[in-house]
Amino acid sequence: MKTLTVALGDRSYPxxxxxxxxxxxxxALSRLEAKGSVAVCTDSNVGPLYAQRVNELIADAGLRPVxxxxxxxxxxxxxxxxxxxxxxFLAEGLDRSSIVVALGGGVVGDVAGFAAACYMRGVRxxxxxxxxxxxxxxxxxxxxxxxxxLGKNTIGAFHQPSEVIIDLTLLDTLPDRELxxxxxxxxxxxxxxxxxxxxxxxxxxxxxxxxxLEALIYPIxxxxxxxxxxxxADEREQGLRANLNYGHTFGHGIEAVSxxxxxxxxxxxxxxxxxxxxxxxxxxxxxxxxVERQQACIEAYGLPTSWSELPVDATLEAMRRDKKARAxxxxxxxxxxxxxxxxxxxxxEEQARAALSALCREPAGA
Length: 366
Ligand SMILES: NC(=O)c1ccc[n+]([C@@H]2O[C@H](COP(=O)([O-])OP(=O)(O)OC[C@H]3O[C@@H](n4cnc5c(N)ncnc54)[C@H](O)[C@@H]3O)[C@@H](O)[C@H]2O)c1
Ligand SMILES: [Zn+2]
Prior knowledge:
Structural class: alpha/beta
Mean pLDDT: 95
Strand order of the largest sheet: 1-2-9-6-5-3-4
Oligomer: single chain
Bound molecules: nicotinamide-adenine-dinucleotide, zinc ion
CATH architecture of the largest domain: Up-down Bundle
Low-confidence stretches: none
């Protein structure tokens, strides 16, 4: 097991990564001087698989586990869940010194993290991510929150976890489509920060897709390292942290016009990265070889780089509405070489339209 650190002064915290890392939970709880009850927030898919084991580890630490379950799925990432979770915390007598454990994917992590941020004006929480998205992205960085019918992730708080425990064996039960979608974020980390990581994804595809634990350790650890460095340098997304949004400006627009149902987030990000590649080429920042290399890697993981019915105008409109469009200016993250990106705020509507048009084709072999 390897331990990484998110360096945020007195709010610094460890990320423990490895096969079997979950066994470190009792030690983590004792380091945090947990007392009394520990709330384990999970969802209706993950709870039946792993809550009992987590509860046993909590009991091993001499503490009382309390399980709080929400229905699985993005549609349930709503303010009502905060009310419910906090209600359970109150009923079970959790106090300011209690700890909340988020056991699940990004949805559970965001909701449980936000509940922890709100309960008694903030209690500590531990992330135990169970999807690739959560292990390489959402569990690190302290962004928590829920959706509002008028906008995704629009109600939330920055609340850093006290510890992140990434156990790769929990991925065993993760559905294939979720696995692949999560790997889009790993490919993204390669493009924005590390050509070696990108090359690893190119050469280890089969082992990674078969969830070979040995093969998964490096990309997950490296992704956490990249995210941890970015968060430590720019916790509140004033600058550098925006790099993590590579593929997301287009991706969020695509998610919105497809009603958040057609594509998983990672699939929309895959499309968004391809559009960002087309944009970078149009700007003369990269050549065709870059675009083709990125496309081949995305497609090798069964992720989309085309959507023949993409509504270009509606997507542009949705991108403008996205909360990241400050004062009407869209910020695009574009690569200028593999492993390095830059920000552009001077992209014209025509250029963005042309980039999106690169997605409007039938998939290869269709
Ligand atoms: N806070 C952040 O910085 C951040 C970053 C990226 C994404 N997010 C958020 O994360 C969410 C997406 O996360 P996600 O992709 O993990 O989705 P998710 O939490 O909905 O999990 C996907 C599905 O897999 C199931 N599942 C999870 N782990 C499993 C396992 N080990 N075995 C079997 N089934 C399992 C879940 O029940 C769910 O049905 C979005 O709401 C997004 O906004 C947040
Ligand atoms: Zn993402």
